[in-house]
Amino acid sequence: MTDKDELIQPDRGQDAISIQLVDTDGFDDWAKKLSGPQRNALAAQKFTGKGYQTAIVPDGDNWFAVGGVANPDDLSSWCMAKLAATLPAGTYRLASGTPGPALFGWLTAQYRFDRYRSRDEDSPVEGSRVLLTKDAATIPAVMAEAEATMLVRDLVNTPAEDMGPEALEAEANRLAKQFSAHLTVTRGDALEKGFPMVHAVGRAAARSHAPRLIELEWGKADAPRIAIVGKGVCFDSGGLDIKPTSGMALMKKDMGGAAHALALASLVMERNLPVRLHLLIPAVENAIAGNAFRPGDVLKSRKGLTVEVTNTDAEGRLVLGDALTKASEDGAELILDFATLTGAARVALGPDLPGLFAREDATADALLAAGDATDDPCWRLPLHDGYRDMLKSDIADMVNSASGGFAGATTAALFLDRFVGDKIDWVHLDTFAWRPAAKPGRSKGGAALGLRAAWGMLEKRYRG
């Protein structure tokens, strides 16, 4: 995409094209102030002030832009995103007020994933749309959130051959170098002793996609310790319980939890949050080979619990179990994990809403409030103790997948809960990491869902 540093700039009185915002209720009164030719131009473009409508209005030898919004006095992240995607290249400013939260959508609307596209030499290069703001102090924070959001999109959109475990490690290494963090990686057969479930799930992959447990630590040693964990299943065939073709089509996105974790960690470090950060990513490919783990196998875990494999396609919770155990051992007061974990969450909530599970009501409430404040809503689902019996095994401490199909998102969360240390504040976000259809500011494909909510909660909790 276009360099983000060019897309929003402080307003120092430089030349810019005016943008006026209007809603349907105020449209008639606003239009009465225009000339006949200007009203005709709006009519020709069928502009009535509805949300996301855009128009260009002649103004002597010049012109101005107009956008339809729900409420000109209460802007959202997305209300100017359609303008950012459709206006001609140039520099713009609001006729009145400041963009506020709409700066974020202005940036993300201009995201393009073009890694694999060839460009005809004769085709024009699309220019950027720059938005000025008098509230220059907000620019660094908005830039950081937009950059983190687009990092999730880039990572999830990249095909599995180019986004295997080694690529996730490379991304973590890039962040470690950028922010002077410490990176530790346990790879291949070395996982068998310390992270046996990560090893079991990933051992069937090709050597170039060998499994690994990626850990990054940053911040002052005496700061409150938080852990961010992300499911890094870089491609999920389903294992020996193989998925059908339709179920495998989007499985490049099964590392979406890791993408969210990397992006949230980048925000923590970029914005210098006063915490001791521990990022953990179990990165694997759930492949099929002669040494793949099997239905009926009993796996040892880092925590010492044994797990009977009732479904090799419920592998994400296995690798997360070992990572959550490690995060708990190292003394985190708060653990957040992100995972594209269950289809059950999508059946219940659809693609837009991450399912939120939390041990502490106050933490869940804070995260939900932060999501509402940043146009990144989540929905809380229950950690219902009565369903723990569904994970009982006849031969091991637990099964990895409950039979019967009931409460699939909850039983998956309850599985993870067994691997989180006692009395640790823990949040699990079952996110889709994908947008099936584009919306203003939100492109089709990889999507950051729950990222801004989690960041907003962390920032308020640790910065106040």
Automatic annotation (TrEMBL):
Q: Which PROSITE patterns match?
A: CYTOSOL_AP
User: GO terms for biological process?
Assistant: proteolysis
The record's family statement is:
Belongs to the peptidase M17 family.
Record-linked PANTHER family: LEUCINE AMINOPEPTIDASE-RELATED, PEPTIDASE B
CDD domains reported in the protein's UniProt record = Peptidase_M17
Q: What is this protein called?
A: Cytosol aminopeptidase
Q: Which GO terms describe its cellular component?
A: cytoplasm
- Keywords tagged on the record: Aminopeptidase, Hydrolase, Manganese, Protease
**SUPFAM superfamilies the record matches:** Zn-dependent exopeptidases (SSF53187)
Query: Has keyword Protease?
Result: yes
Task: Drop me one GO molecular function for this one.
Answer: metalloaminopeptidase activity
* Matching InterPro entries: Leucine_aapep/pepB, Macro_dom-like, Peptidase_M17_C, Peptidase_M17_N_1
